[in-house]
Design brief:
Blueprint (H helix, E strand, L loop, with lengths): L3 H6 L2 H13 L2 H8 L3 H15 L4 E4 L2 E4 L1 H22 L12 E6 L1 H18 L4 E6 L9 H8 L5 E4 L8 E9 L1 E6 L10 H6 L1 E5 L8 H7 L6 E6 L2 H9 L5 E4 H11 L1 E4 L8 E8 L6 H15 L3 H4 L5
Parallel strand pairs: 3-4, 3-5, 8-9
Antiparallel strand pairs: 1-2, 5-12, 6-12, 7-10, 7-11
C-alpha cells in the first residue's frame, strides 16, 4: 500500500503506464501505444518501482516479464483504472451512433463464423463507426478455456465467447446461443442414403483439432458403444474443414448452427448424427469490472441481442 508521502508523489499516469507495459510485455511497444518515447516509459517505470519498492518488470531478450508483485497488483490496478475511466466517461456519455471505438472479441473460429454476420448487421445499423477485431482463442488441454479468462483479465480482448459455463464469479456471462452437432458431408455423399451408425463408423473422418490430436468427443461416445472410427485427417479450424469436406468423401461432426450458416456456399449438407452427441451453450464473458465501461457494456448486450434476434435465414436448415 502507498503511504501518504508516496501518494503525494504519484500520479495516475504511472498506473496507465504500468497497464500498457504489462499488456505489451515490451517497453518500446508500450511507448508507441502511449505516444511516449521509450526513455519516458523507462523513467516512469523507475518512479513506479520506487513507489512500490519492487522491480515490477524484468528484461528479457524479447522484452520484459512481470515480477510476482506486478502480477499480484495487475487486477487491482485494472479495477482502479476501470473505475476512473467510468467516472471520466460520464463527462461524455457513450453514444454508439457517433463513437469511433474499436473492440476486440475473442472466440473459436466456428463461433466467430456464426456471430459476425448478425453482429455486423447491427453495427451497420446503429454504430457505423465502431470497429471490431476478432481474435481466435483455443482451449487449453482437456478442453478448458483458461487462456480466454487470462486474456480477458489482461485486457488482451474485451469479450470472449466460449463453450463453457464454468466461469469465475468475477465475470459477467450471458448465453449467446445454443449449439449441437450434425454430421457434415459433401452434397451427393453416399452416406446420406444410409446414415446408420454402422455406416458412419465405416466412413473416413475429419476432425477439427488445433493440436492435430486424432481423438475427440465423438470417439468417446463411440467407445461407450464398443465402436471406433478411422480419423483420416485433422485440420486446425472449422472453415478449413468445410472446404476439405466439400471436395472429398470425408465426413465430420460439426456444430449445427455453424454449418447452417455456411453450408450452402460450400455445397455441404448435414444430417442428424446416428448416435447421441453433446450439446452446449456459447457464453459471452466479460469481467464485471470492465462492465463499468458504458461502451463495453453496450457491446456485450448488443452481441447477445443480435444473436437471439438473428433472422431465421441466417440459421439455415439442415436435413434431419
Amino acid at each position: 500500500m502507498l503511504n501518504r508521502i508516496d501518494l503525494s508523489r504519484a500520479d495516475l499516469n504511472l498506473l496507465v503506464l504500468f497497464e500498457a507495459v504489462l499488456e505489451e510485455r515490451h517497453v518500446g511497444r508500450a511507448a508507441e501505444r502511449l505516444n511516449l518515447t521509450p526513455s519516458a516509459v523507462s523513467h516512469g517505470l523507475g518512479r513506479l518501482r520506487q513507489l512500490l519498492n519492487d522491480p515490477l518488470f524484468l528484461r528479457t531478450p524479447k522484452g520484459v516479464v512481470p515480477t510476482a508483485r506486478a502480477t499480484e497488483i495487475a487486477a487491482p490496478v485494472a479495477e482502479v483504472l476501470a473505475r476512473v475511466r467510468s467516472v471520466m466517461a460520464t463527462a461524455a456519455p457513450f453514444d454508439p451512433s457517433t463513437s469511433t471505438r474499436r473492440f476486440t472479441i475473442g472466440a473459436p473460429d466456428g463461433v466467430s463464423a456464426v456471430v459476425l454476420r448478425p453482429l455486423l448487421a447491427e453495427l451497420r445499423r446503429t454504430a457505423p463507426h465502431i470497429d471490431i477485431g476478432v481474435r481466435q482463442i483455443l482451449p487449453s488441454p482437456a478442453r478448458v478455456w483458461r487462456s480466454a479468462i487470462a486474456d480477458l483479465e489482461a485486457r488482451a480482448m474485451d469479450v470472449a465467447i466460449i463453450p463453457s459455463g464454468d466461469i469465475p464469479s468475477r465475470f459477467e456471462k450471458a448465453c449467446v446461443y445454443e449449439e449441437d452437432f450434425v454430421i457434415a458431408m459433401r452434397a451427393g455423399h453416399p452416406f446420406a442414403r444410409d446414415p446408420t451408425l454402422k455406416r458412419y463408423c465405416e466412413m473416413e473422418h475429419l476432425v477439427v483439432s488445433e493440436s492435430s490430436d486424432p481423438y475427440g468427443f465423438v470417439d468417446e461416445a463411440l467407445a461407450k458403444q464398443g465402436r471406433s472410427r478411422r480419423i483420416a485427417l485433422t485440420v486446425p479450424n472449422f472453415m478449413l474443414a468445410l472446404s476439405v469436406i466439400a471436395e472429398t468423401d470425408l465426413v465430420s461432426a460439426l456444430p449445427r448452427r455453424f454449418l447452417a450458416t455456411h453450408a450452402a456456399r460450400f455445397e455441404v449438407l448435414g444430417l442428424d448424427p446416428p448416435l447421441l452427441l453433446p450439446a452446449f451453450r456459447l457464453n459471452a464473458v466479460v469481467s464485471k469490472v470492465a462492465m463499468m465501461d458504458a461502451g463495453l457494456a453496450w457491446l456485450f448486450n448488443l452481441l447477445v441481442r443480435s444473436q437471439r434476434s438473428a433472422p431465421k435465414r441466417h440459421r439455415g436448415r439442415l436435413r434431419g
